[in-house]
Design a protein that fits this description.
The protein has about 400 residues and is α/β, with parallel strands linked by helices. It is built from 15 helices and eight strands. The chain has two domains: about 25-180, Rossmann fold, CATH 3.40.50; about 190-390, Dehydroquinate synthase-like - alpha domain (Dehydroquinate synthase-like, alpha domain). Strand 6 and strand 7 form a beta hairpin. Helix 4 (about 80-90) packs across helix 5, helix 7 (about 190-210) runs parallel beside helix 11 and helix 12 (about 305-315) crosses helix 13 (about 325-340). The structure holds 5,6-dihydroxy-NADP and zinc ion. The site of 5,6-dihydroxy-NADP has 34 residues, from helix 2, helix 5, strand 6 and helix 7.
């Protein structure tokens, strides 16, 4: 039985990622990667070639031996990553450098693990949830604040052929270093900025909006990140070349999912679990799936999350009137309106006309996979998930 403790839980914390934050920090790459390494630079669909990031990386690596692999798509695709794995093996690559957003970084994490994996198929790592303790060393140059992948040890990989989107992780998957230069934000399209704001906001919520355990500092840090994101959102959407806004946006996203605020507290992650299924079924951007699922998830679980919802409403949205239920409902409404203020629709039917039956499909998938106990209380069955998804139509 899952027992809810009412005090801060025991924890271990180790995050070895070296962060190089600020303007011009890309040039320091050369000092982070030994020249004896043979490097594979990995990137996405080409945005880095339009905004000067590629040139800066190449200039920094002028004394290194390197090859390039471009074309990693959003929601990094397993089949494409296998082509990169082939290059790593045939060319004797010893070090990976991801230059991109969460998709490129996650794809690189998969490759770092797969490169040393000796089992039958690298899909096992995702399918069987094999943790990665040792991997090929890799660094990252972040071009899109959102996922926090630059400072954590998790990754998510998609496999279209079988409609799956699966996670992996382990202490071997921390980047050696990550370069966070906020000037890269200037060229990010509005849609991706909104996605980054929403994803990072929801990362905090998944680790905060559960039940109180007296973890005052974790709560205050979480609320601080949420408030900073709310303040930064209109500034960065208005002018992504505003350095101050970009710097705050970038650091909030990293801090939202680098492992710090989850220590000692219960975590939820049901919104992400359900959201990944929506991406696998409809290709909806990751962040948008969260904005679809979260309001219904919180409404459905209003009672079990009541105390935290009231605290969140008061500290983040200044909601001080009404009884607990009214305040909790208002806090959820504010959250949904925040996503909408970023131009992110919050109903599944806003994204697809084929939404009928989605709830049952997802319920069945989770059931087949044995994911029968989601949420911070491990109390949400696939039937509960079906109700939540139906409420999001
Ligand atoms: O591919 P390119 O041409 O580079 O364009 C990308 C891509 O189309 C573009 N972009 C990135 N930086 C840019 C830019 N365009 C202009 N200027 C720049 N500076 O943005 C598009 C989206 O990029 P992507 O990497 O897909 O976005 P994001 O960072 O939101 O990553 C999403 C992926 O990360 C996973 C998601 O599930 C999804 O697969 N997640 C990873 C997590 C983790 N590792 O901890 C946690 C998250 O919850 C999430 O699940
Ligand atoms: Zn996320």
């Amino acid at each position: 039985m899952f027992i809810c403790s009412s005090s801060m839980q025991n924890f271990e914390l180790q995050n070895p990622v070296k962060i190089l934050f600020g303007k011009g920090e890309i040039s320091k790459l050369s000092q982070e990667i030994p020249t004896s390494e043979k490097v594979l630079i990995l990137y996405g669909g080409g945005s880095i070639k339009k905004n000067g990031v590629y040139e800066q990386v190449i200039a920094a690596l002028k004394d290194h031996t390197y090859l390039e692999f471009g074309g990693i798509p959003a929601n990094p695709e397993y089949e494409i990553l296998l082509n990169a794995l082939e290059v790593i093996k045939s060319e004797g690559i010893t070090y990976l450098l991801a230059v991109g957003g969460g998709s490129v970084i996650d794809g690189t994490k998969f490759l770092a693990s797969a490169a040393l994996y000796e089992g039958e198929s690298p899909w096992d790592i995702l399918d069987q949830g094999i943790r990665t303790f040792e991997a090929m060393p890799f660094g990252t140059v972040l071009t899109l604040p959102a996922t926090g992948s630059e400072m954590n040890s998790g990754a998510v990989v998609s496999r279209k052929e079988i409609g799956e989107k699966r996670g992996m992780g382990g202490p071997g998957l921390f980047p050696k270093f990550s370069v966070l230069d906020p000037t890269v934000v200037a060229t990010i399209p509005k849609r991706q900025l909104a996605n980054g704001l929403t994803d990072s906001y929801m990362h905090v919520m998944e680790q905060y909006l559960t039940y109180p355990v007296g973890a005052d500092l974790q709560d205050r840090i979480a609320e601080g990140i949420l408030s900073s994101l709310i303040e930064t959102a209109p500034k960065i959407l208005k002018d992504p070349s505003d350095y101050e806004a970009a710097a705050n946006f970038m650091w909030c996203c990293t801090m939202a999912l680098n492992g710090l605020i989850q220590k000692g507290v219960p975590t939820d992650w049901a919104v992400h679990a359900i959201g990944h299924e929506l991406t696998a079924l409809f290709g909806i951007d990751h962040a948008r799936t969260l904005a679809i699922v979260a309001p219904s998830h919180y409404r459905y679980n209003l009672k079990s999350k009541m105390e935290k919802l009231v605290q969140y409403g008061e500290r983040v949205w200044n909601i001080t009137e009404g009884n607990s239920e009214e305040r909790a409902s208002k806090a959820i409404e504010k959250t949904e309106l925040f996503f909408q203020s970023l131009d992110i629709p919050t109903r599944l039917s806003d994204y697809t006309e084929q939404y009928e039956g989605t709830a049952q499909t997802i319920g069945n998938t989770l059931n087949d996979r044995g994911w029968t106990a989601l949420g911070e209380h491990r109390s949400l069955s696939p039937k509960d998930v079906e109700s939540i998804v139906e409420m999001s139509y």
